[in-house]
Amino acid sequence: MEKLRFGVLGCSEHYALRIATPLKSSLLVEPYCIASRDLEKARNYAQKWGFPRACGSYEELLADPEIDFVYCPLPNHLHLTYIKKAADAGKPVLCEKPLTMNLKEALEAAEYCEKRGIPVMEAFMYRFHPQWIRAAEIVRAGELGRVMATSGVFSYDLKDGSNIRNIAETGGGALYDIGCYTVSSARLLMGAEPERVICTLKRDPVFKTDIYASALLDFGDGRSSTFTVGTQLYPWQRVRAIGTGGTLAVEVPFNMYGDVPGLIRVNTGVGERLIQTEIADQYLLEFDAFAGALIDKAPAAPTPISDAAANMAVLDALFASAASGNWEKVIRVN
Question: What CATH class is the domain 4-123?
């Protein structure tokens, strides 16, 4: 079978660091074109990372009929614009998280792509790792009883003001960059959407981005999730769930290595066990899952855009709560 050819919008450090090498093993996709507003930069990137073609504009890439789908790792504030431009060009989109800057934009992206019959998926790669598939199975099977609470921590230390994650105008900050993961994983493990949230955050006096944020998500009936994220903290990540019948912890929930087994620690009345899942690269699995859905002409992406909109609704409420100092309701997304 001929592989699907994809184009990348922007000479992404993320793609080079985490995605380019794993995709060499893919049987479904292959890099074809890289675009940058600096053609020489694109040519150098193409030579280094195996793209047969380089473009001096994003629009030129989108116009290429040889490209089967587009990967968009552009800054957050450009996501909606280039999702729509890709849809106009008939190109399915795998877009980095968060999908957009707010719920209004997420719903606009969903409607725009649906009208044109163009698949779009938010790139939450962790959802495809065997450790998370197994964790979700354990929860669904009822081994933890009813999950009553989850907690998450995700942090790193980055004080470079030129880094996109520290530029407020383009969608930088802790909640957008890593809070989206702690929200997404909480929703997954709880199997529900929060009704309301309360959030506190601190902004950098120079960057103006949120550098620390802590939140409580109320799922109703006593069920809740808490998390802390930070961009100027000791690098750390953990996710835990506790239910009426047991507990579960994912040891490296988000930036999981591609060359060691995943680890899930489970405690129940029977005892404690450490589950090792198969060695797998979550980025390879993500790209292959998206490509497989395109090949099979599936009615929706493996992670539907409605999930991205629901996650964005929670982020909107968190920002609103941080501003008001009060509980804020989460808008329901159908």
Answer: alpha beta
